[in-house]
Amino acid sequence: MKIFGLHLYQAVVAILAISMIYQGFVRYIRRESSQTILKFLVRLVIWGGMITVTLFPDVTNWFAKVIGLQGNINAVILTGFLFVFLIIFKLLSSIERLEKQVSILTRQDALENINGENNNSKK
Amino acid sequence: MIEQIESKKTFIIVPAFNEEKIIGEVINEIRSSGFSDIIVIDDGSMDDTYIEAGKKGARSFRHKINRGKGAAVKTGIEAAKKLKAHIAVTMDGDGQHNPADIEKMIELLENGYDVILGTRLKNPTGMPFYKIIANKIGNFFTWLMYGLWVTDSQSGFRAFSKKALRLIDTKTDRYEYDSEVIREIRRNKLKYAEIPIEVRYTTYSMGKKNKQGFVNGLRTVYNIIWDLIA
Q1: What distance in Å separates residue A43's CA from the closest CA in chain B?
Q2: Residues of A in Cβ contact (< 8 Å) with B223
Q3: pTM confidence score
């Protein structure tokens, strides 16, 4: 099955990668403190690389030659690998976000009564 | 000099995890160096660190669960900001830093610097060889990721001006916090200086399991890289 001349897996990977790059771009434009230009560029290279390999698979032949390997990439393995990679990426992102939220809550709790009775000092 | 410094409302922030045996001594030593505003952040200890710090007169705050050194220091800095600090100094809770070095740091802040970084590498006497190597690797990754070369990117002994306290915004919870501060210095164009500090590697401090060892060092590098990608 083809969509706009692309195989299904190509369309899916392209949409996912564009959406990840877009999210990073929006965060950078909004000047979120956690989103530096370097971070955005790393995101661009990783997800941009995925789009390139997916839309122009011949690049892998050139890459295989450069690193000294021969042979094509099995489409099923590639798709599976991308799928697993995506899940791991999202899971780790979610865990990271939750960890940060837990830290913020823990901090708020610790400092709840900073000028009052929660302070353990026996001065 | 100390009286003048004290009038600037200086807070000494000590993150502590399972340090009941030594935290009282650390607080006494800081106080003997002329600093009475001491904030101890008990980072979810399973022992009586919080109670011991309170007994010694420090303002102690408790994380109900362990969140890591970076999170504890950030809590201390938030506390200092709420208490209207002009200067905040962070130092480890295991007694390896010498509070006698604080005064030198504050003098530099008084001379217009925003951040003073204590560095072990300018005077590595007594520092184990593997720690020197691990430190250099940490410095390299910090430079690679954040673009600022410092001689001790993993030191916990640092002093911050009011301006630095306002501008520095860290997100990480564990040991990568130390490198994140370096990133913030560069991002906010803060004026910084490095000064040699004395570090006392005692049997107690070397025996602690949660220190920045080789495995934790790898984890720190992984976290720095992950923070860039995610």
Answers
A1: 6
A2: none
A3: 0.72
Q: B8-38 pLDDT, tens per residue?
A: 799 999 999 999 999 999 999 999 999 999 9
- Alpha carbons B168 and B39: distance in angstroms, whole number: 19
Q: Which two tokens stand for residue B202?
A: 């005692």
User: CA B201, B204, B205, B208 torsion: positive or negative?
Assistant: positive
Contact: B187, A36; criterion CB under 8 Å? yes
Nearest to B157 by CA among B62, B110, B88, B210: B88
**Distance (Å, rounded) from C-alpha A122 to C-alpha B79?**
18
Q: Which amino acid is at B183?
A: R
**Residue B65 and residue A120: Cβ atoms within 8 Å?**
no
B229/A121 CB distance under 8 A: no
Q: Which of A33, A93, A110 sits opposite B169 (nearest CB)?
A: A33
- By CA distance, what is A95's nearest residue in B? B230
How many of the other CB atoms lie within 10 Å of CB of B9? 15
Beta B38-43 vs B10-16: how paired, if at all? Answer: parallel
- Listing DSSP states for chain B in one string gives -HHHHHTT-EEEEEEESS-TTTHHHHHHHHHHTT---EEEEEES-SSSHHHHHHHTT-EEEEESS---HHHHHHHHHHHHHHTT-SEEEE--TTS-B-GGGHHHHHHHHHTT-SEEEEESTTS-TT--HHHHHHHHHHHHHHHHHHS---S-TT---EEEEHHHHHH------STTHHHHHHHHHHHTT--EEEEE--B---HHHHT-TTS--HHHHHHHHHHHHHHHH-
- Complex-level ipTM: 0.82
**pLDDT above 70 coverage of chain B, percent:** 86
Alpha-carbon gap, residue A95 to A101, rounded angstroms: 10
Q: d(Cα B62, Cα B52) in Å, to the nearest integer? A: 12
For residue B207, count other CB atoms closer than 10 A to its CB: 9
